[in-house]
Amino acid sequence: MSTETRAIDIGVGLFILLGLGSVVFLTSQTLGSSGLSDSTSYTLHARFDHIGDLKVRAPVALAGVTIGRVSQISVDPMDYQASVELRIDKTFDQLPIDTFASIATTGILGGKYIELGPGGDEEFLQDQGEIEFTQSAILLENLIGKFMVNGTADKDD
Amino acid sequence: MTRSLQACWVSFSQFAATFGGFQMFTLRLLPYLPRAILRPRLITEQIYSLGALSLVLIMFGGFFVGTVLALQSYSTLLEFGQVDALGAFASEALVRELGPVVTALLFAGRAGSAVASEVGLMRATNQLAAMELMAVDPLQRVIVPRFIAGVVSVPLLAAIFCTMGVLGAYLVGVHQLGVDAGAFWSHIQDRVDLFDDVGSGLFKSFVFGVSASLMGVYEGYYAAPNAGGVSRAATRTVVITSVWILLFDFVLTGMTMPGV
Amino acid sequence: MLSHKKPPNIIEIQDVRYSRGKRAIFDGLNMNFPRGAVSAVMGPSGTGKTTLLNLITGQLVPDDGAVLFDGKVVCPCSRHGLYNTRRQIGVLFQDGALLTDLNVFENVAFPLREHTRLPEQLIRQIVLMRLNSVGLRAAWQRMPSELSGGMARRVGLARALVMDPKLIIYDEPFTGLDPIAVGVILRLIRQTNDVLGITSIVVTHDVAEAEMLADLIFLISEGKVVASGSPLDMQQKASSMVRQFMQGLADGPVPFHYPGTSYADQLQTMSRT
Ligand SMILES: Nc1ncnc2c1ncn2[C@@H]1O[C@H](COP(=O)(O)OP(=O)(O)O)[C@@H](O)[C@H]1O
Ligand SMILES: [Mg+2]
Fold first, then answer.
1. ipTM (interface pTM)
2. What is the extent of the structural domain holding C67?
3. What's the rounded mean pLDDT across residues C250-269?
4. Residue B129 and residue C93: Cβ atoms within 8 Å?
5. How many CA atoms lie within 13 A of C269 on its CB side?
6. Does B69 reside within a domain?
7. Domain presence at residue B109
8. Is the CB of C6 under 6 A from ligand 1?
9. C-alpha C205: how far from its chain's center?
């Protein structure tokens, strides 16, 4: 009888753990954190005028190969620029200091990611370093808008 | 013609009568609920047989619903160049709708019917009467623990269903269809809201859990004390619970959908 | 003791009227069950023997009249009072009505676990003692589905006795048992009654067993007690009703044919439609 009770207790315990674990999983997926841990990655910062619909966890790619993730996005209240935190895999820790970061799009309407173009400097970016050269997202609707009003007076954004 | 109208009327009035009796039963159960906490053992036993033993079915169901969802949506999303949103699409559908609804339907079929026939058989074999005569209230001893166990189990099962579904969609989407893993998760994080989606999904499955469990114990408790009565109780539990779940789902979706 | 004298009858049924729908099952029923005796309630199937038991245990309420247990009216008006009464009454159902998800030991322990906070060791002692008295101590681990009909009834008896009731009621305890099992149950009922000094009411339609067992026999028919007395008295009653029942005649005051129109009439009406 007591072994049966034990089995029931264990079963119920596992079930409830699994259930609560699932709730935590679902919750954490909606709040989320980047997939790369502190020990295997380092952090870089980049500032953009506009990031389009870049999302936290979007890939950071070098020559098309994913080497990191966007880990945080915020707005600098001083200059109204978007401040993006990138976590880069530690094996790619030799990015020149004049590396160029641009927000690119997969396909025409696809999601945004950050593409890095390595520069030529001898010095490398350190942890918590800042990427100086950035290009904002190309906003398709702005392009279309500019194209449409081409010839008439320029419009302020 | 008049005959089928009559049949409609009969089944409608039966439904109404069931509903009335059901409400009375629910009200009768309320005062028993607080006291049930004094005997947690009885509830654990039922969580085991209703919840833990439904796990395999629920995990299996969730996983395959997730994979199918990923396969199905992929081609459509591809057309619009939005395959990155696969994860968001699948998780939102799972967390808001499929998780709570399919879990509750599976639960009604697996556990609700089992409760109805178990309690019905206890009625038919005088076990409930025997308890009455031993001055043990069957509502407290038999009905309420099963009800509470069902109410506790269904939301947990739904959460497990959704998790398995998201993992299934991830496996198919990322490993088979080549969606970027980061994009998969980042879109989920961006699109799925804690309160609007996860919260409302859990709320729904709580409501469904209450209905499925109540229906099971109600039908069992009032089953006709013979073989036919017991099997009818099981069938009615599944049918009526399913109809209710789908109906409630419509109402709750209308209530909780942002912008409707 | 200072308490006043207990009434001589543990159960008194006073002018009870009870009907199901329009049909009166009991109409002015009067019975007294004396303390300490084994009383048998006999009657043809469907006369309301089980109904009578349900009236005694308060599962049914008489339309009129009263049922007294130990001098107090049995009344479901207060659940507490009713349950207090029921704790002093043990009922043995026809099939034992064991809880199918508990084993033999737990079935017998069930009332103790529900109503007392006795330590596990004491529960074990009481249960094994009761099981021993019905000869099933060795079967304590079996599930109800693994028991024969007679064994299930004996476990039911052990369970009915575990709370030390003042009165124990048996509904058709001999039906469907082989002769050896009948003998066992007979002995157990008598022994329980005398050794524990309790009162027993046995509902049955088995004449031979009732005569062997009972101190007092009630014969009920059509809502009333038609005869009562010791087995010897009943043998000598001249009434044709009593004779038919006690001697098992197919026809008599209780007709062989279910009442209706005549055979010829029925043939005619049925061929017309
Ligand atoms: N639940 C019920 N509803 C309607 N009639 C019933 C019900 N239970 C018993 N009866 C009727 O009451 C009468 C007495 O039944 P019962 O007490 O079971 O008889 P007995 O035990 O002597 O065979 C029977 O004629 C039966 O038809
Ligand atoms: Mg009967």
1. 0.84
2. 9-88+165-271
3. 77
4. yes
5. 7
6. yes
7. yes
8. no
9. 11
